[in-house]
From TrEMBL, chains A, B:
GO terms for molecular function: NAD+ binding; prephenate dehydrogenase (NAD+) activity; prephenate dehydrogenase (NADP+) activity. It comes from Thauera phenylacetica B4P. The keyword Oxidoreductase applies. This is Prephenate dehydrogenase. It comes from the Bacteria. Keywords: Oxidoreductase. Signal peptide: none annotated. Residues 5-293 form the Prephenate/arogenate dehydrogenase domain.
Length: 295, 295
């Protein structure tokens, strides 16, 4: 792979910091420059050896940059792109790590319209219990998936540069359209988060909440683990991807209406058939076996 | 505590087998007799040292028995009680390990109406990934909760015998009415199971199921872990507790309707407030801190 002479990471937290650490460990990068909202975060990133220096501004950051990773919460994308656009020069490849892609692509088109050949949106499917640069580690992306959603305008060389960088981090790179990405992740990630947040909020608002929580056990713990996720990040994801998320929510409400009718009718056979199908699919998935398409 | 001279376990699987192993390890039991649907299971239980002998039938099992634990799936309760009732003698205490309590209490009243002074329904809040007697282990109940739902007729000495047995297993015993039990577990256990089964079934039935599952990650894994639970057991629980479960499902559907409206309106502040409240409650619970009652 081509060496990245100068890497710029905008938003040096768990995601951006781990990308920097992984590339450095792979010997794939020269100098790593950080930029972001909060000076103290960047200073900690320097002290921890995650970045080499702090950019004074976008002009400074983009001067001679080979690759820029945008890794701030997606709600900040517009403001970041507006600030960086005037200083972006041909040959600097721009990618991102946002959990939604249609809104990021729209923002990229609106702000970097003249530079789309060097723009390659992406989404690493990785996270950890903790966030922030202190939680960053070089192995975060080992064996994890990264979805690239290149634009029709993206140059093959730019796509390759982003692919090489993620593969140097140990990730498996796959491609999708932004539309496909947002539909898939609405189903397998954004909806489950919404459902878990909703269940905990529902119970926490009851007058007997202490009694309820005191009897919750390991099933509840696992089901609601994602309700401990970052509210601002998930607000941004839900709002950005609300069209696809509403479609998934409505499909799920249809499923719940069917289950509700089985409960009303005491239809044990119907419930068992649903549970059996779900268990079979879930266990096959957990064991890495192929999931069969519904007949 | 009073020693249990002869213990009868009906249904020697994970739950019944672990109860037997724990009492034996505590030196709290003399002879352990197993009874159940399938001879080969009882023979394995003997071979594993979980029980000492296999009863030839209920007359044999109940002869001189101090304590009977019913630990078969709740759907079999009626048939089991009908078979055992003619052979039950005064002084033998009967308890169970069913996940629902109102239906078990109704069955106990209907079949053991003359012996209710010695009947103490219960529910150990414990389980494991695997089921069956091979999965049984003496430490299953260490530090776990066991809910007793004594009847108005239950003698204090019978309640104490059941409490002593569970405490000898290392469990923390609490008391509730059967109604309260079923409402609490509908909220913190039965509804989450229904929701997880429903989500996996919804996705598994799509034409693009293989694509969806191939991008599911750790959040999905935890959220859906309980969708790998036993379909027959959960069918019985859902049917037995469907009144309380329907109340919980309807409350949750109200919560989802509110979240849906926030998505439709792009109400990021509203979503963030829900997510923040959920995260605070979930993290407090996970850290063992008190859950505050809603203002």
């Amino acid at each position: 792979m081509a060496h990245i002479g100068k890497l710029v990471v905008c938003g040096v937290g768990l995601i951006g910091g781990s990308f920097a650490l992984a590339l450095r460990r792979a010997g794939a990068v020269g100098r790593i420059v950080g930029i972001g909202r909060r000076r103290e975060v960047l200073e900690r990133a320097c002290a921890l050896g995650v970045i080499d220096e702090i950019a004074e501004g976008w002009a400074d950051a983009l001067d001679g940059a080979d690759l820029v990773l945008l890794a701030a919460p997606v709600g900040q994308t517009d403001a970041i792109l507006a600030a960086m656009a005037p200083h972006l020069r041909p040959g600097t490849v721009v990618t991102d790590a946002g959990s939604t892609k249609r809104d990021v692509v729209a923002a990229l088109r609106s702000h970097l319209g003249g530079a789309l050949a060097d723009v390659v949106p992406a989404h690493p499917i990785a996270g950890a219990e903790k966030s922030g640069v202190e939680a960053a580690f070089a192995e975060l992306y080992m064996g994890r998936k990264v979805v690239l959603t290149p634009l029709p305008e993206s140059r093959p060389e730019a796509v390759q540069k982003v692919r090489d960088a993620w593969e140097a981090c140990g990730a498996n790179v796959v491609g999708m359209t932004p539309q496909e990405h947002d539909r898939v992740f609405a189903a397998v990630s954004h909806l489950p988060h919404l459902l878990a947040f909703g269940l905990v909020d529902d119970l926490a608002g009851r007058s007997n909440a202490p009694l309820l929580f005191s009897h919750a056990a390991s099933g509840f713990r696992d089901f609601t683990r994602i309700a401990g996720s970052h509210p601002e990040m998930w607000r941004d994801i839900c709002v950005a991807n609300r069209v696809a998320l509403l479609e998934e929510l409505d499909a799920y409400l249809g499923e719940l209406a069917r289950l509700r009718m089985m409960l009303v009718e005491g239809d044990g056979d119907g419930l068992e058939a649903v549970f059996e199908r779900a268990r079979r699919a879930r266990n096959a998935w957990a064991e890495g076996l192929p999931i069969r398409t519904a007949e």
